[in-house]
């Protein structure tokens, strides 16, 4: 549990570090990205404390990394991210796959800091979970989101089945029969297997617990037995001025279509192709779409709008040119390669997975 008073936590942690020979200095008055700084020998460390009830997710890690790469943060040799509640599995996945070496993770518990040296093993797996990516409109990124959400699960060590329900079979074109994502050194990775709907038989894949369906925008083209199985649905849309009202109407029609066959699935609207550098315009458009969405949530408590200020799939060159391997004639792959040392898609989809686990029972089902 978090400290009732964050200042008490700060003073307790500072005392521990001073006892260990660190010279502690307060953060600059306008600093928002770290709690205090300290020195010992040639080391200069920025310390960020997170006093939350929920586990710290990838977004906080990515923000701290961004700070350390800024001119103000460049003077530090390392960062310590310390949480009172631990870290989500995706945080460890991000650190491992991005080979982050300049941040150490610590969990404060029982008046001690326990340094996280490695990712804890996943608990035993349980029932199969079905996730549909569906919208009554083409061209909003269903296939991209289906594939890369599967990639986020795979990075966390879970084999995933991707079922292509769209008549265009774009998943098969882009990923063939599937891909393998290697694990960290010395351990096995995970597979993403691509199937057509008529190739799917649960009894053939009893070791797989996550099934993601890339749905056709034509509702009647999706086999009803899959729609009925969905535990969760992701409805991708975009945030742009010409399509904002039209998009809200598409979302309403999509919800209505899913509810014809499935009254229990949790439905999540996700902003795709988000231009994060347009703060003011995004704020205005986001408010409009949230207002349109309020009616839906009043009628159906299982409908959710993911605020893009919390989680969105950002516009990036990696996603824009995903599929270029078809031109090159190289093997199928996801858009998780780093550009200038970073991969926005990897971070965004790991954050999406964290968000779903925080707001649903998905984590228990996945485990």
What does this structure look like?
By secondary structure, the chain is α/β, with parallel strands linked by helices. The chain is built from twelve helices and 14 strands. The strands form two sheets. It has an eight-stranded mixed β-sheet, sandwiched between helices. The model has no long low-confidence stretch (mean pLDDT 88).
What descriptors fit this protein?
alpha/beta; 8-stranded mixed beta sheet; 367 residues; single chain; 6-stranded mixed beta sheet
Output the number of helix runs: 12
Average pLDDT over all residues: 88
- Multimerization status: single chain
DSSP E strands, number: 14
Rg of Cα set: 22 Å
- N- to C-terminal distance: 23 Å
SSE order in H/E notation?
A: HEEEHEHEEEHEHEEEHEHEHEHHHH
The secondary structure category is alpha/beta
Instruction: Please estimate the helix content.
Output: 25-40%
Largest sheet: 8 strands, mixed
Low-confidence stretches: none
């Amino acid at each position: 549990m978090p400290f009732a008073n964050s200042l008490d936590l700060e003073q307790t942690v500072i005392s521990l570090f001073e006892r260990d020979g660190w010279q502690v200095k307060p953060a600059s008055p306008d600093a928002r990205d770290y709690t205090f700084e300290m020195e010992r020998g040639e080391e200069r460390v920025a310390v960020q404390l997170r006093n939350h009830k929920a586990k710290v997710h990838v977004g906080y890690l990515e923000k701290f990394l961004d700070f350390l790469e800024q001119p103000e943060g460049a003077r530090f040799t390392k960062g310590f991210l310390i949480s009172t509640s631990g870290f989500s599995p995706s945080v460890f996945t991000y650190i491992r796959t991005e080979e982050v070496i300049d941040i150490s993770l610590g969990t404060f518990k029982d008046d001690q800091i326990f340094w996280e040296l490695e990712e804890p093993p996943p608990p035993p797996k349980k029932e199969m979970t079905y996730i549909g990516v569906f919208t009554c409109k083409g061209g909003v990124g269903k296939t991209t989101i289906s594939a890369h959400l599967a990639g986020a699960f795979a990075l966390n060590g879970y084999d995933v089945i991707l079922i292509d329900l769209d008549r265009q079979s774009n998943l098969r074109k882009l990923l063939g029969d599937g891909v393998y994502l290697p694990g960290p050194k010395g351990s096995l990775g995970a597979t993403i297997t691509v199937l057509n709907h008529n190739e799917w038989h649960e009894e053939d894949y009893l070791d797989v617990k996550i099934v993601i369906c890339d749905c056709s925008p034509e509702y009647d083209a999706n086999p009803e037995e899959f729609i009925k199985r969905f535990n969760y649905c992701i409805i991708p849309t975009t945030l742009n001025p010409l399509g904002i009202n039209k998009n809200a109407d598409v979302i309403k029609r999509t919800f209505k279509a899913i509810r014809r066959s499935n009254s229990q699935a949790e439905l999540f609207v996700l902003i795709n192709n988000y231009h994060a550098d347009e703060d003011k315009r995004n704020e205005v458009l986001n408010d409009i779409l949230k207002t349109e969405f309020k009616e839906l949530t009043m009628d159906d408590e299982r409908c959710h709008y993911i605020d893009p200020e919390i989680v969105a799939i950002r516009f990036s060159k990696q996603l824009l040119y995903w599929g270029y391997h078809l031109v090159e004639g190289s093997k199928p792959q996801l858009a998780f390669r780093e550009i200038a040392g970073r991969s926005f898609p990897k971070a965004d989809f790991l954050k999406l997975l964290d968000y779903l686990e925080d707001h649903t029972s998905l984590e228990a089902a996945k485990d």
